[in-house]
Amino acid sequence: MNLQELKDSLQQRDEITFVLPSGEYVPPHFHVTEVGKSSKLYVDCGGTVRAEEVITFQLWSANDYDHRIQPQKILQIIEIAEDTLGLENLEVEIEYQRDTIGRYGLSIDKDRFLLTRTQTDCLAKDKCGIPEQVEGLDSESSSDCCPDSGCC
User: Fold this and answer.
1) What is the DSSP letter of 115?
2) 125 DSSP assignment
3) β-strand 30-43 against 49-61: which pairing, if any?
4) Where are the domains of the chain?
5) Residue 127, pLDDT score
6) In 62-100, where do the E strands start and end?
7) Going by C-beta distance under 8 Å and a sequence separation of 6 or more, which residues neighbour residue 64?
8) Torsions phi, psi of 7, nearest 5?
């Protein structure tokens, strides 16, 4: 979900519910502690320089159980961040504290925001000698990397 889709959805709501991939709900007394723009510049294992930018929202639950943030308040926070940080219509990621800070994608299902799993991937499979998975075929996973493949 990108920033504009999130804003459009917030404008149509009276309350907000976030659901973790496990089906567990983020406590309704969460705070949005920050809205930011995260930039990542890196080199993948094949030597290609890559850049990514996302908008991050950090959710935090405290002991103030009577707290309920309203969609309009989140829209105000977004507006401040847009003006201050020059936010573009980028994809949104959610940071949420469990036993460590987790980073999630964001989608919507009717009246709930769904935190979606994110995962790592090799971005240079062709240079690492890792075959592309063909849908419908079972493949064994291996943690071995061929020494001459140029991978890692």
Assistant:
1) E
2) H
3) antiparallel
4) 3-118
5) 86
6) 92-97
7) 29
8) -60, -45
